[in-house]
Amino acid sequence: MYDATRVTRAGVPEAVQGEAFLQGPVFASAFHAAGDPSAVPYTYARFNNPTWNQFEQALSELEGGEAVVFPSGMAAVASIFGTLLRPGDTLVLPSDSYYTSRVIAQGYLAEMGVRVQLASTRGNAQLAHLEGAKLLWLESPSNPGLEVCDIRMLAEAAHAQGVLVAVDNTTPTMLGQKPLELGADFSVASATKALTGHSDLVLGYVAAKDSTLLSKVRAWRTQQGAIPGPMEVWMAHRSLGTLALRLERQCNNALAIAHFLSRRPEVLEVRYPGLPEDPAHSIAVRQMSYYGPVVSFTLASREQAEKFLANCKLVYEATSFGGLHTSAERRARWSGDIISEGFIRFSAGCEDIRDLLADLEQALATLS
Ligand SMILES: *Cc1c(COP(=O)(O)O)cnc(C)c1O
């Protein structure tokens, strides 16, 4: 089956007369479990929950590896760092990765004696730092710069030196890019963004082909206790069924917007891996099936960016991305990313492209 079909059925049980298509959330802390606990699938809800299992089954089918769900993307990221890295180990991290991943690495991990080696996503620059490393962390396309690296090539080079590879796959989702098929050991993502796409929950997950590696991640969740609520997990599963529908519309809108912006004199630079002239396109076209909902572009100044956002009528000024409502923000209002003051991270939603382009047109016109 094709992905657009598979998302509608992923993790959904076989049809049973008189039962719902997808079982509702199971709210429990303890389950009936008399006698030998190893003979009972559910005992205590920090260990396991049927609503997680349904969703993890869905993620497994789509990722091509076993999955463990976490209460946020960061909890998922931290579980890989926490299970693999020990004092003296080296982590190779993108210098342009999601800011909080760098905060954990350069703060907590470095303080505990992990060597953190930063290199940019662009140009596969992390390749030069693999010697003696324990874990290669990739993020492609990177958030918010939308740089792309060659996942297959980097994973092969890393494995040749005994280095494990994790890919933060948040921006494209597993429908846009499949890290495990490209050779990574771990695919990790925030499900808060495009994967669930309704801006109504925070969630994350880790998937891996090797069940020994993944069982360590699962034990980490059980023992550290960062577990997701069943309601959020069920909502995520419900949203997953429309992922292909949403992503197709959002990516078509993103490409049309990127084309539009690239012809506007007010815009200094546009980045979108789906644009044929984008520096990331030649690699992206080989490893991605959707280029994602995010377009990044740069206006001349902080004032221009603020004015543009204030004058958009259809674009929510908000952080996060990937939702069905188009949103954007001037990214430099947060610290941590190496970007200019006029840099805008724009997330294309599911609206009619004619309305979006008209809104952008009138908002840009107020700048000159
Ligand atoms: C949002 C994000 C995260 C963190 O996810 P949360 O669900 O906010 O914890 C990690 N990586 C990337 C690339 C993200 O965009």
TrEMBL record:
InterPro entries: Cys/Met-Metab_PyrdxlP-dep_enz (IPR000277), PyrdxlP-dep_Trfase (IPR015424), PyrdxlP-dep_Trfase_major (IPR015421), PyrdxlP-dep_Trfase_small (IPR015422). It comes from the Bacteria. GO terms for molecular function: cystathionine gamma-lyase activity; pyridoxal phosphate binding. This is Cystathionine gamma-lyase. Its EC number is 4.4.1.1. NCBIfam families: PRK07582.1. Belongs to the trans-sulfuration enzymes family. Keywords: Lyase, Pyridoxal phosphate. One of its GO terms (cellular component) is cytoplasm. Its cofactor is pyridoxal 5'-phosphate. The modification N6-(pyridoxal phosphate)lysine is found at K193. CDD domains: CGS_like. One of its GO terms (biological process) is cysteine biosynthetic process via cystathionine. Coiled coil: none annotated.
